[in-house]
Amino acid sequence: MRASRYLIATVKETPSDAEIVSHQLMLRAGLIRKLASGLYTWLPLGLRVLHKVSQIVREEMDKSGAMEISMPVVQPSELWEESGRWQGMGPELLRFQDRHQRDFCLGPTHEEVITDLVRNEYSSYRQLPANLYQIQTKFRDERRPRFGVMRAREFIMKDAYSFHVNQESLDATYAVMHETYCNIFNRLGLNFRPVIADSGSIGGSTSHEFHVLADSGEDEIVFSSDSDYAANIELAIGTPSISDVDIDVEHQSLELVDTGSAFTIDEVAKKLTISRRRILKTLFVHAADKDGTRTDELVALFLRGDHELNETKAQTIKGLTSTILASPIEFADDELVERIIGCPVGCLGPHGLSKLGIRSIADISASEMRNFVCGANQADHHFINANWHDECQPDYTIDIRKVQEGDISPDGQGTLSIKRGIEVGHIFQLGTKYSKALNATVLDENGKSVVMPMGCYGIGITRVVAACIEQNHDAQGIIWPAAIAPFQLVIVQIDAHKSESVATISEKLYQQAQSLGVEVLLDDRDKKTSPGVKFADSELMGISHRLLVSPRSLADGVIEYKSRVGSEKQLINKEEISEFLHCLFHQDSE
Ligand code: ATP
Ligand code: MG
Which of 7, 120, 412, 459 matches a 20 to 30 Å C-alpha distance to 362? Predict the structure, then answer.
């Protein structure tokens, strides 16, 4: 490719509306342009990277035995009615009508369409297992599109769906996909971790997310220092390293103390000169009725003062208790709490709640507290030496706390640490959620009709590009891993208008690199583009290798080489350049 004929859309200034480095660099290096909120055009340079990511994913999926297909982005409402998601899904699902007033949506995911296809095309256990995938556009009307293509409304996903005759077969394919994902992210040169995940609204049981480790990640992921345990914080479990559980501790007698204007856990801890973990934290959230609709009824949640509520755990407790909380968790507003409890927030506690008909849930660590401090449900007062007993007892005790750094791993091996991650892939065992709703069955070996258990496996192709930049950049710009660099080599020619030999030699090098199968960009932009700009652009765009052909270097009989990663420049004898190129790219492909 010749830069003079190519859209080099680099920008010097950092765009003000781009908060994270990958978004800034994708705009500055000329990979993408914004059309509207969450909608992006991929420019030629960006598309080269995107195609490389897709190709790696495609190769590994094909290797795993999956079959590529392509399904429509536009989906009829009837299928979504069948699965129950036409009503169930919120405004993320973009719905519209055609000219005949028929309802359609833009596919945010393709479980319905694939299940419809498979129920029509597959009839016997002999055809199974089957794993079908596509690399295709999705649309989700995200509440908060941000960070460029990281959380866009229109984006490209690789989505695969597997169908089975029994759970064993699903387990086997799930394991293959887990391995395939590791191969993909290794080939992409990413530092990633698979973690146990919440299967979310999509339903199902077993699930893993693949996270690229980066400080800008929206998720928190938890690892053990000594074992393979790794989980999304939403469902990570751990044991606090310091606990007050001491069964032998003698119960002291309850005492009411004036704590004045100390309302927060920190203020109460300071006032009473005790540690935060000796204080019970009481939160009020809204309950939901049996259809999951939020009600005005309040439910009290108890946590140790140094612990935080894990909202995902709290909203998924339904089924474990007869109490269902509104999902997502909705905290009661202060006025409502004051009206119902008759005391300002800041002095709330467990005493007397059951008399008011208020149900309560304690986190396990909170239920283990002894001689603790809690709000007295009286203005400006707290209890000290409170203990759980008949009149002050949670209705349920369940793990609802966020794990913390230093907690003991649930397998007892090592302690937990927390890092930020970007979710680039997600695999689920869906079970029969969709196949049952859409009646997708095959005949088993006894001629009996069985509903097929399903798996589904996603990778955010466009998000991978951004995640990769988050992990691979410096002050000058992007540093692409070799496997997905848009070009492997850039040849920068300086003052070709003044020196004919610069023009001929760089042209010769360009031809030579091409004949070696190297993806090469010849920066032949004319004198209006200064050498400084050419250098800066090549670094910003992250091209792995650079050759410089200038009148000065040619006068010395050399060509200058620089790798994007190192700062060292190397001078290569003109006569040896061809062998040098050969070695460089021969090594690269090894
Ligand atoms: P998130 O939690 O980030 O919203 P999700 O769990 O809703 O993602 P999945 O339904 O698991 O997403 O989709 C599979 C993959 O698609 C995700 O792992 C992610 O890489 C990608 N993805 C999801 N939503 C977006 C988006 N809005 N923009 C870009 N990529 C996305
Ligand atoms: Mg997900």
Answer: 412
Paired residues of 53 in beta bridges: none
> What DSSP assignment string belongs to 33-79?
EEEETTEEEEPHHHHHHHHHHHHHHHHHHHHTT-EE----SEEEHHH
How many Å lie between the centroid of ligand 2 and the Cα of residue 156?
Answer: 14
Alpha-carbon span 104 to 96, nearest angstrom: 5
The ligand 1 site (C-beta within 6 Å) comprises: 109, 140, 142, 151-152, 155, 157, 200, 423-426, 458, 460, 462-463
Please compute Rg for the chain using Cα positions: 30
Ligand 2 center to 199 CA (angstroms): 7
- Best of 157, 422, 430 to mutate for ligand 1, by most ligand atoms within 8 A of CB? 157
- CA contacts within 13 A on the Cβ side of 505: 26
Q: Over the stretch 444-482, which tens digit does the pLDDT of each residue have?
A: 999 999 999 999 999 999 999 999 999 999 999 999 999
Nearest CA to 206 among 158, 236, 174? Answer: 174
Torsion angle of C-alpha atoms 227, 233, 236, 242, degrees rounded to 10: 80
Rounded distance between C-alpha atoms, residue 321 and residue 310, angstroms: 17
Cα gap 353→391, rounded to integer Å: 9
Residue minimizing CA distance to atom 21 of ligand 1: 460
**Is the bond leading into 328 cis (omega within 30 degrees of zero)?**
yes
- For tokens 């609709």, the residue is 293
Q: What tokens appear for 365 in the block? A: 């660590």
Report the 10 Å Cβ neighbour count for 580. Answer: 15
Largest CA distance in the chain: 96
pLDDT digits (tens, 9 = 90+) for 32-82: 999 999 999 999 999 999 999 999 999 999 999 999 999 999 999 999 999
